[in-house]
Design a protein that fits this description.
The protein is an all-alpha fold. It contains three helices and no strands.
C-alpha cells in the first residue's frame, strides 16, 4: 500500500500544488494590482510635478511681461506728453509765422525756443 501511495504521489502532487496556488492567487492578484496602482500614482505624481513647474515658469514669465508692459505704458504716456508739448509749440510757431508772414524776429524765436531748439537751429543754418 505504501508503494501504491508512493506511485500515486506524482499524480496527486500537481493537484495539491494547484489548490495551494489557487488560494494564493487572489492575494497575489491584489498585490499585483496594488503595485500597478502604485506605479500609476508615481507616474501621475511625476507628471503633476512637471506641470506644476511649467505653471510656475509661466506665471514668472507673465509677471515679467506685465512689468515690461507697465514700463512700456509709462514710456508711451511720457512720449504722448512730449508729442503734445511739441505740437503746441509747432502750432504756436505756425500761427506766429502766419501772422508775421514768416518774419519773426530773432528775439521772438529765442523767447519761444528752448536751449535744444536754439542748438538745432544753429546746426540747421550751417
Amino acid at each position: 500500500m505504501v508503494l501504491a501511495s508512493a506511485a500515486a504521489l506524482p499524480l496527486v502532487a500537481p493537484l495539491l500544488g494547484t489548490s495551494g496556488a489557487a488560494l494564493a492567487d487572489p492575494i497575489a492578484d491584489k498585490r499585483a494590482e496594488a503595485l500597478r496602482i502604485a506605479a500609476t500614482l508615481a507616474g501621475q505624481n511625476r507628471q503633476i510635478s512637471v506641470l506644476a513647474e511649467r505653471l510656475d515658469e509661466a506665471r514668472l514669465n507673465a509677471d515679467q511681461l506685465n512689468q515690461q508692459l507697465a514700463r512700456a505704458q509709462a514710456d508711451l504716456s511720457q512720449t504722448d506728453q512730449q508729442v503734445g508739448t511739441q505740437r503746441a509749440k509747432l502750432r504756436a510757431q505756425a500761427v506766429n509765422a502766419y501772422v508775421t508772414g514768416g518774419n519773426a524776429s530773432v528775439a521772438q524765436l529765442l523767447v519761444q525756443a528752448s536751449q535744444e531748439d536754439v542748438g538745432l537751429r544753429r546746426n540747421w543754418r550751417r
